């Protein structure tokens, strides 16, 4: 649907389906999809290629000298901006021109589905963490590409993100798009009046509200943060708002950090690129964690467990930038990857029971030295995880189900106790895992399922 964020041409009614077909006889017009900021959008069909299309036409505007809001130029700019962007998550422009009576139009691919605003409403007002992160990832990929071409969207919001029947995400409505940085042509006049703020209020970055302030790609990232919050919570981050995991305990607390940094009021402390946000989201997708609550049971645990609280910067918790640190906001400090912890525990058990002579009858006393140089891996729905052990540390390497490789992470660990073929391991808290009879495979609970890891080298 078109953006409603700017005034529409006055006293204009969209042409009927029959009239538009007469103006554009090579397209069959079947429905009026909506009326928005600069015109109307219709569903049509390009008969000679047998494909459905969306046709956007500009409403009647005043003469060029009286077109205060630059409707005509902005309409042409939208068509050109979309035509320059060849990305699977951006709606593709097919044609651009003027009707015989002088109305501008452009034709784009038709998305058979709904926008994200409608999708949220159809799911009870908010989305699952998985759906919200998936949609956001695709939006960030598309914005990263657009920004690399010097184009900012300036109106990112759920209503401008489309979802087709196959679940593919598409950014639409570049009606407020502009070039920035090296892509700016200084000889071209501005298409925005100096006394006018463009965009949808709740999604507009604070710097865009300051007259004369230069707005760059980070304004889009602000809007992404607001949209992510909206999808996760069903609310908008207005005034004194609570973070997602404070409203819904099942949400990953690391999402709070992403939202907070994305919607920083000062762009200097915001994410610097769409790629940076995508990297933090990938960490949550690839390494799901469980929030650990320090309760009376942990307080009563043996002293050895209490000593295992790791430093804050353990490679899992998202790092804070200086301004966020100054805010003094309390954050949940104890995070843990359930799969990582259990895998570590079972590997320690494997080495305890592994024979050290050819007959295989002896069971040597466990020491940390047995783990050095061993490698293990396991698979889950997110991809494959490989582990390599060094003294007192292990290196974790993750490959997503799509083949994407992530930078290795190094972590500390300690073995607490062994009983039979079960092992207790401390990594911020205690967990129990089990080794099977052949000592080559190990299993541990992960949510409602059981994960299994195999020894690769020893």
Average pLDDT, rounded to a whole number, is 74
The major beta sheet can be summarized as: 9 strands, antiparallel
Compute the separation of the termini in Å: 59 Å
Which CATH architecture of the largest domain would you pick?
Answer: Orthogonal Bundle
Report the top-level CATH class of the largest domain.
Mainly Alpha
Spatial extent as radius of gyration: 28 Å
Strand content: 15-25%
Structural class given helices, strands, pairing? alpha+beta
Spell out the CATH superfamily of the largest domain.
Transferase(Phosphotransferase) domain 1
Instruction: Kindly report the spatial arrangement of strands forming the biggest sheet.
Output: 16-15-14-13-21-20-19-18-17
Could you give the count of β-strands? 21
The total number of structural domains is 3
Instruction: Using the alpha-carbon principal axes, give the shape.
Output: elongated
Helix content: 25-40%
Instruction: Note the total helix count.
Output: 12
| Uncertain ranges | 1-8, 62-68, 183-197, 290-338, 349-360, 362-368
Write a structural description.
The chain is built from twelve helices and 21 strands. The chain has 458 residues and is an alpha+beta fold. The protein folds into three domains: 110 residues, Phosphorylase Kinase, domain 1, CATH 3.30.200; 173 residues, Transferase(Phosphotransferase) domain 1 (Transferase(Phosphotransferase), domain 1), CATH 1.10.510.10; 122 residues, Lipocalin. The strands form five sheets. The chain has a nine-stranded antiparallel beta sheet, covered by helices on one side. Strand 17 and strand 18 form a beta hairpin. The longest helix has 20 residues.
